[in-house]
Design brief:
By secondary structure, the chain is of the alpha+beta class. Helix content is 52%, strand content 8%.
Length: 624
């Protein structure tokens, strides 16, 4: 083993360890691995960022934008309305929903497809009398499987095609993945619809009722001798932090402020609307001299409206109103709204959301947006403790209170998905048709072989912008930039594996110790190893690492490299054992109330089925 081989293997092992650890984001780890290769001379400095111009990376960017266009145009909503049955049994309903998710994932970003269908899945679970998780996990697995059907279905397919082109064999075509991918998808969907969903743990539903917000809603009055009188609201909030209490409103002169400005001076007679656990609240209230007025649970008809509120629509504007902090809704007169304009809504933090790792205090939810964070659900555990300082994680369900348009804007900007069913969008007339025709044209141009994939889809993006299907600004917001950085950084690292001979070294080890020179056994080893790695590492990174090994293995065996590349494509996409292997698995973690160990119950049989179907199909469609 040469020094360069030892170095690249050490870099890859360290990177894989960091991926699995999860302390740092995947794009940061990938960038660190790239720079380590540059500093050690494994990747020339002039080629360090060549991966960002790779056709696979450009195509992923374009597919994300085209997927966004299909979403905002209402094309997916219309398709879901026509395809999903209005009334059916459990098996048929789950089969229809997962089937739709698989079809959409074949032609658009599967995370986007999952996000669009999640609210539908929650609604379907209620109709079927099932916990949300029993519908969400089948949908997640179905959308993952659907990505294996076409070239653009998932980033690993594009990466595999790129490595084939670099090997001098030319890239794969749009539907070269279809024979094997479709067989695996149909087999997987059949198992999931008939048996798989029954294996999913029936965790408690994650809806607004489960947060028990009414139990913790309390009014306290500031009296003349109260220590809180004359203080700023933020000072009282700091004291209430000790009791894990959250101020969700203030009533003054009959007017309710849904998200009062933290700098507001409290007066005698003000009423604070507080969410807290009464056991820990009593001592703090007595220390501040606050009078406990009464517990005010919301009436049944207002489960999705304000958790509490005073009403006096005829009161005049109070004098000496302080200006709210700058920000979107922090300037809406400190959140003064009628109770009927305030709703409570659940939002799920997407894996790529920009609020991941930040707390309500960091985001300044109340000051900037006029939003109250009432509770967080994480892996089935619902809490209102330390809300303002708790960092948000991917898959968390956030119970937020605010005006509907504010919550909608916040969700869109920060990468969250409303958990409640959405109304069907009503975009400008004909936008859904335009978006669909553009996507069909891009796919057709690629399938006919006349235009490179990256060029065809870049033209599709330009057409969507020109026809106003997507706005120029939203184009950049639609791109999952951490994934793009991950891809652009890992491709040169994977290239270093091949140039140093490390890929050949690993391939020889696998052939000598495991496959023992048998081609079919070697193919099975590549497939299973890829599936195991992708359960703990990003699927795109897994494909980038395994492709050089697969090509080297095929070369040493003297067999068809396409069989081994296809094994990597299928294996990298099939992450069913953990919530961190694929973004769709992470996305359902909070809404389904799942724990880390819940995924293998349906995931392990699915993995076994995938191997059982993939190997004979590879040998038939791509013979050795």
């Amino acid at each position: 083993m040469t020094l360069d081989q030892l170095t690249i293997i050490a870099v890859l092992v360290a990177a894989m360890g960091m991926f699995i650890w999860g302390k740092w984001r995947h794009d940061m780890v990938a960038a660190g691995a790239l720079l380590a290769c540059v500093f050690t001379g494994l990747v020339p400095g002039a080629e360090a960022f060549s991966g960002f111009g790779h056709p696979a990376v450009i195509t992923v960017v374009c597919v994300l934008v085209l997927s966004h266009g299909l979403q905002v145009s209402g094309a997916v909503d219309e398709l879901a309305r026509r395809v999903l049955p209005s009334s059916a049994g459990r098996t048929r309903s789950i089969a229809s929903l997962t089937g739709l998710g698989a079809v959409l994932s074949g032609f658009m970003n599967n995370v986007g497809a999952m996000a669009l269908l999640m609210p539908v899945a929650v609604k379907v679970s209620g109709k079927l009398g099932l916990t949300p998780g029993k519908v969400l996990m089948p949908l997640a697995f179905g959308s993952i499987l659907g990505g294996t059907i076409t070239l653009i279905g998932t980033p690993p397919n594009l990466i595999v095609s790129g490595f084939r082109a670099e090997a001098g064999l030319g890239g794969f075509g749009m539907f070269d993945f279809t024979p094997v991918g479709l067989a695996v998808t149909v087999a997987g969907l059949t198992f999931i619809s008939l048996v798989g969903w029954r294996l999913v743990p029936g965790r408690r539903q994650s809806d607004t009722d489960d947060f028990d917000t009414a139990v913790y809603t309390t009014e306290v009055r500031i009296t003349e001798d109260s220590k809180a009188a004359g203080k700023q609201l933020r000072d009282v909030e700091r004291s209430l932090d000790e009791a894990d209490a959250v101020i969700v409103g203030l009533v003054r002169s009959g007017f309710r402020l849904s998200a009062p400005y933290p700098g507001r001076i409290l007066r005698n007679g003000d009423i604070l609307v507080i969410q807290a656990e009464p056991k820990s609240l009593a001592s703090v209230l007595s220390g501040l001299g606050l009078k406990l007025e009464e517990n005010v649970p919301p009436p049944p008809s207002q489960k999705q409206e304000s958790a509490q509120g005073a009403q006096d629509d005829h009161s005049s504007d109070e004098p000496n109103r302080e200006k709210g902090a700058s920000g979107k809704k922090g300037e809406q007169e400190e959140g003064k709204t009628k109770p009927s304009e305030i709703i409570v809504q659940e939002l799920v933090a997407m894996p790529s959301a920009i609020l991941i790792g930040r707390s309500a205090r960091d985001l300044e939810l109340r000051t900037r947006f006029g939003i109250n964070l009432l509770a967080i659900s994480r892996q089935g555990h619902r809490s209102i403790k330390r809300l303002r300082s708790t960092p948000i994680q991917a898959g968390d369900v956030l119970l937020l209170q605010g005006a509907p348009e504010v919550l909608s804007g916040f969700a869109s900007e920060f990468g969250c998905v409303p958990l409640a069913p959405r109304d069907v969008r009503v975009p400008a007339k004909g936008q859904a048709v335009k978006a669909s025709l553009i996507m069909i044209s891009a796919v057709s141009a690629t399938a006919l072989g006349g235009v490179p994939v990256a060029v065809a889809f870049a033209a599709g993006v330009l057409a969507m912008m020109a026809l106003r299907v997507v706005s120029p600004r939203s184009v950049y917001q639609a791109v999952d930039w951490p994934v793009i950085v991950l891809l652009g950084a890992m491709l040169p690292v994977a290239g270093a594996m091949a140039s140093t001979g490390a890929a050949d070294l690993i391939a020889r080890f696998l052939l000598d110790t495991v496959a023992q020179g048998h081609a079919v056994l070697g193919l099975a080893v590549i497939l299973v190893a890829t599936m195991l790695i992708t359960d703990f590492m990003n699927n795109a990174a897994t494909a980038a690492v395994m492709c050089p090994i697969a090509l080297s293995t095929a070369s040493q065996l003297g067999v068809n490299p396409d069989s081994f590349l296809m094994a990597v494509a299928i294996g990298a996409s099939c992450a069913f054992l953990t919530p961190i292997g694929h973004q769709n698995n992470t996305l359902i973690l909070g809404p389904g109330g799942f724990h880390f160990g819940d995924y293998w119950r349906m995931g392990l049989p699915t993995d076994i089925l995938v191997v059982a179907v993939t190997l004979p199909m590879l040998l038939w469609v791509w013979p050795l």
